[in-house]
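Researcher: Please translate sequence to structure tokens.
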Amino acid sequence: MHIFFSGIGGSGIGPLARLAKQAGYEVSGSDKQESAATKQLQKEGINLHIGQTEEAIAKLHKKHPIDWFVFSSAVTRENLYHPELIFAKRNHIKHSMRDELLNQIITDKKLRLIGIAGTHGKSTTTAMIVWLFYCLKIAVGHSVGAKLPFAQAGELPQGATYFVYECDEFDYNFLAFHPYLAAITGIGWDHHEIFPTKESYVKAYRDFIAQSRHTFLWQADAKQLKLATGDGISELRQDDPLIDTIALPGEFNRHDALLAVQTVHAITQKPVAQLIDFVNEFPGLKQRMELLRPNLYTNYAHTPEKIKGGLNTALELADNQDVIVIYEPLTNRRQHHIKHTYKDTFKGAKKVHWVRTYLAREDPNLQLLTPAELITYLDDPNIAAPAEVDVSLLKTIKQHLADGDIVVAMGASGTGSLDEWLRTQVETGKL
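Model: Translation complete:
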């Protein structure tokens, strides 16, 4: 079977393309632009081209007929008349989003799904679970929405009986799956364009849990979801003394680690103490409090809960140092929903340099909120100031580092992001 992946450089589609190739399918794809991800896939022997036109996919289809066209949410949200999707429909090629194909692979390979869901901490917890399997030398398939330092973001090794997957709630994607075991990292409210009310968001999680054979989650979330304890539900306590035996920095990280440990323990029956020793050696993952150079970190954070989690970790790492935040909001849509919740989000930071919002899949009818406007929603707006991602910000960062401060960039990822800009400054020796 020949499967074509549109947007193959994406964090969700790319790992799935790799999985499909490892599962024995013929794989090809396209992306709007070249990236480190597309280059890596090409090195692995995956045929892909840059530029998404009807002419290019038609040429490929004529040479190697496409049996299945897989695309991401971004394809139709960015362009309802996406030329590749139009071509697939016109030529009666099976087309679907990634969840249907992943379910097919899970079924074909007779895998048991471990699904990790939650408003925050999904990538970290998923990566920790994969790390524990690696430490135990147990073959496991996986797909993680971030770059791992110890494995590819998506892999399907020979002999795997379990598949660890970061189940994203965006577009209700996670409801396509029926996990053997589900782990819920924490439930807030996000993706407001999909879930217009918190009740609709919470209901989606209740549905996800209902179609999972067994679920691990925190007591507070079980209470929020109004779940009855009993068969199929295991509640974890926020004050579990085991958390104090986890040496990772950051309260959020330690909670994610305990969830990962209990999940793997339930499957393997390996001693909890042994698993905690392993998780204490977890090497982290890209853009989750990732150290770019001494005292300079980058952290993927776009909700108040995620920002507080990253800031909590930074404050624990600080040794009588001030913590400075450079904040890049993610999507103008989200800002209109969360602006009233910023309040004390940056409590503990000495200064916040607030840059322009990273735009993606925006509603053109919404007013573009500026850094100056968003700062007014802080309890203490005096700790923050608007900033531009330019040479002036570079000088500011260099001065903070020279003063011995810890600088944490919190924001989006990808082309044109603050994270990409920072990495370039470090790689070229400017920082």
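Researcher: Any highlights?
Model: Residues 184 and 217 are 5 Å apart (CA to CA).
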